Amino acid sequence: MKERKADLFNTIFEDGVDAICITTNGQYTMQGIAAMGGGCAGVCARRWPETAKRLGHLLKSLKTNIPFVIGALDQEGNYLEPTREMIKLKQFKCLIFSLPTINNLMDGANIQLVKQSTTILQDYVEQFGLKNVMIPRPGVGIGGLLWADVKSAIEPILDDRFTIVSFEHEE
Question: Which of 36, 101, 108, 164 is least enclosed by beta carbons within 10 angstroms?
Answer without folding.
Answer: 108
